[in-house]
Amino acid sequence: MNQTIKNSQGEALDYTFLPGDEKCRDENWLVILGHGVTGDKDRPVITETAKALRDVGLDTLAFSFAGNGASEGEFCAATISKEVADLGAVIDAVSDAYAKIAYIGHSMGGAVGLSRVAKDKRINALVSIAGMIDTKAFADTEFGDETPDSGLMWEEESCPLSSAFMNNLCDEIVSLVPLVNSVAIPWLLLHGTADDVVLPKDTECVQALRGEAVDAVFVEGADHSFNEPAHKAQLTETITQWLRGQLA
Fold first, then answer.
1. What count of other Cβ atoms lies within 10 Å of the Cβ of residue 158?
2. What is the DSSP string of 146-168?
3. What domains, with CATH codes, occur in the chain?
4. How much is the pTM?
5. What pLDDT does residue 2 have?
6. Three-state SS string across 65-76, please?
7. Where do the H-state alpha helices sit in the chain?
8. Is residue 86 a contact partner of residue 68, using CB atoms and an 8 Å limit?
9. Which residue numbers in the chain have pLDDT < 70?
10. What is the pLDDT of residue 1?
């Protein structure tokens, strides 16, 4: 796959496509992966998951939202709502080639996935890794001491905090709880119990609302990005087994 993918603003989205292992490849499914705040498609939590899925025969497409990584666009314009549209543009580009699409989102990328699934029936399975639900609480806790349009996200010079970002999370969205019961497809949620960025209570909230209608896995001691090798191994094994189960 070597086509250019652009969003509705005409911004090219950088992506990496990995075909599944030919020995067990399922040509019907594509797994799309989206990253979190200040991230990109090359963060280990994304790349290691994509490699594990390739090894079990699944095609993957990991991409950077506009304004992040090597994708075109301004970082200051990146919001959940804009990234929901970016994901839609990626699905537009690939939907004719695949019968089934799964989406895996990390952190804010999880919020993007839930928001997209609520209105896009082309997604057939959803995986949320440390998925954000209470967007206002996240923004207030992590960036409430910064001044929008002059402050930084986590003191990173390349990641200015914009009023567009804060307004979208705190005023326009506030919480994704109203969307939780609209998900009618298989949904796997994974969260580290030591996550201090997006707190485990976000996944616990979904679990309380949906019960056995979702699969929730808490990885003991794992941080927000599952940085420890043992935690990342548990993450990728859980996702690959679950997705293969959906294929079956």
1. 9
2. SPTTTSBSTT-TT-BPPHHHHHI
3. 15-247 (3.40.50.1820)
4. 0.97
5. 85
6. CCCCCCCCCCHH
7. 44-55, 80-94, 108-117, 135-143, 163-167, 177-180, 201-210, 229-247
8. no
9. none
10. 81
